[in-house]
Design a protein that fits this description.
about 110 residues, 3 helices
Amino acid sequence: MEIKTEDYSIWYDSVTETANFQGSLRLSGMEEYAPIVKLLNDLVDSEPPTITLNLRELEFLNSSGINVLSKFVINVRQKEKIQMIVQGSKNIPWQSKSLKNLQRLMPSLHLEFE
């Protein structure tokens, strides 16, 4: 599972059970986010024991992208057997506040900042 453009890359590493996000996600509206939503939904449907989102190299995410991540977290929360880890960077301003909001949606979500 991989999505690669000039602005961003998203790929899933099945060995580490990690979805990696890199670059800037400035897509307009949910229609443009559809391939990413599909990738994330396919990941949840495969029901790995743990899902890690590595966002440490995601420099920018607009409100539509935050909405996509929020819905993804809610989807994972409904699968009670899946543990979730979100990795962020203290050096990227949007992440500290927005990623804590994801934790509010899923209190068992483990949040890691470096």
